[in-house]
Amino acid sequence: MSDYELDSVEEEKKQYIVVRIGSEQYGIDISYIDNIVVMPKITRVPKTPDYYAGVINLRGEVVPVMSAHRKMGLGEDEITGSTRIIILKLEAQGLVGVLVDEVREVVSLGENEIDRSSQNKKNQSSFINGIGKNGDDLISLFEISALVDQVDG
Fold first, then answer.
1. What is the signed CA dihedral for 2, 6, 9, 13, rounded to 10 degrees?
2. In whole angstroms, what is the distance from residue 43 CA to residue 48 CA?
3. Lowest mean pLDDT among 6-20, 65-79, 86-100
4. pTM
5. Distance separating alpha carbons of residues 130 and 142, to the nearest angstrom
6. For 92, phi and psi rounded to 5 degrees?
7. For residue range 105-150, what is the model confidence (pLDDT) as tens digits?
8. Considering only CA atoms, which of 131, 80, 82 is closest in space to residue 109?
9. Is-contact 53 62, C-beta < 8 A?
């Protein structure tokens, strides 16, 4: 095997969709993403956790939606024309929606472009499993299981 082939085997890249929540950029592993939807009507559900925004009807299926802002302690959502719901497909919960301020781009990151040792001291640190370096941009990579834990109320 040539050196070039060895490099390409070692450097397997993962794709992340980059979203904005507040003033920060976050990456979501694209393998979890089922769909991205423009803001539909969210139906509130009584007696649910604070970060639970409600449910939406997606192709006839009722999908719970959580607010990333509230889940991470970043205050209330500001719904704008850029606001989207990322629909995640999870083995344990099925479909779950996450409210984000904006969807930016898709990036490919190799393991050498991800710093897993950074400990973010903010209260959302438990939701982050690494910091991706994309050019000059730093992207906090979500630990999906921690972010959507207990989303079903």
1. -120
2. 12
3. 6-20
4. 0.82
5. 8
6. -70, -45
7. 999 999 889 988 655 444 445 788 899 999 899 999 988 888 777 5
8. 131
9. no
Rounded CA separation 126/139 (Å) = 15
pLDDT > 60? residue 29? yes
By the 8 A CB rule, do 83 and 39 touch? Answer: yes
| β-strand pairing of 24-29 with 13-21 | antiparallel
Sorting pLDDT into bands at 50, 70 and 90, what band is 95? very high
Cβ neighbours around 105 below 10 Å, total: 12
Give the 3-state secondary structure of the chain.
Answer: CCHHHHHHHHCCEEEEEEEEECCEEEEEEHHHEEEEEECCCCECCCCCCCCEEEEEEECCEEEEEEEHHHHCCCCCCCCCCCCEEEEEEECCCEEEEEEECEEEEEEEEEHHHEECCCCCCCCCHHHEEEEEEECCEEEEEECHHHHCCCCCC
